[in-house]
Design a protein that fits this description.
four-stranded antiparallel sheet
Length: 142
Amino acid sequence: MPKFINISADAKKSSLDSFAGNLKSTNNLVMSKAGFAGIKSSNTVTNIPTILTLGDLYIFNDKMSIKPEHLKSAMHFNGFTSSEFYASILPNTYLYLGDKELTRPELQGCNCFVQITRTLFMESGQAAEYSDFKINRFYEGC
C-alpha cells in the first residue's frame, strides 16, 4: 500500500497546525491594534473596538483573549469549531475540525484537536503573570 494512504489524517493535522501557527501572528496584530488604541496592558478582558465590519478584538494580560468567541472575532474559523472548558481557574480553548460544538467527553473521544491555554504564575509578593500561549496537540484520533 502507498505510504500516503492516510492523507485525510495528515490533512486534518496540517489544518490544525496551520490554525495554531496563525494564532501567534494574529496575536501580534491584535496587540499592535491595542497599542494604537493606547491600551498597553489589561488585567481584565478588554475590548478594542475596531472600525468597519471587522468585529471587536479582545485582550487579556498582554495577549489577545483566547476565549472562543474572542478568537472568532480575530480569526477566520471556516471549517473549525472551538469550545471552552476549565481545567482549573483558567480557561482552556479547544479547537477542532467540524461545525458541531462538542461536549468535553465527545472531544476527548475524537482525540483530534488543539488545546490553547495560558498558565498563571504567582510569586510571593509579586503580581500574577500569565505565560505566552501554550498549544497542545492531540492528534491520535485524526
